[in-house]
Amino acid sequence: MVVLRSKTSIMLWLLAAAAVVVTAHVKPKLLDDRAACENRDTAVSLRSSKASSSSPDGPEPGDPAAAFSVPTLDGEFSYQPGAPPGGPLIIHAFSNKSGFLECLWSSEESLISLVEELPNSTQVLFLSMDESAVSDALWMREQLQRVAMSRNKEVMSRLHFSPVPVFALGNWIPNVLYYWRCWGRGCVYSQAVFKSEGWKMPIIVKRLDARYDWLKTRSDPRSYQLMDAGDGCEPSPSVVGAVAWVSEGNCSFFTKVQSMAKSNASAVLVYALPGNPLQDMNCVGDECNTTLGIPAAMVHLEVSVAQALELGQVVYVSFQNTPSPNFFISIDHQGALAEMGWFIYPSFSFINWQAQWFDFYAALQIKLQSPAKIVPVFDKVQMQGEIGAVATVDLPLALWDFDMLELDASLSCPGRRDSSCAHWDHTVQLFVCCDPLGQYCNTELGRWITAFRRGTGRWLTDVSPLIPLLDSNKCTLTMKTVPWAMPWVVSLNLRFSGSSRTDYSVEKLRPYRVMPLYSGGTFNKNYNRRYRPTKVSVPPSIKKVELYAVITAHGYDDNKCGEFCVTSHHFLINGVFNNTLTFDSAGTPLGCTLRVKEGAVPNEHGTWLYGRGGWCDGLQVDPWRTDITKQLNMSVFQSNTLIYYGLFEGKDPNPSKDPGYIIMSSFLVFYK
Question: Is-above-0.85 flag for pTM?
Answer without folding.
Answer: yes
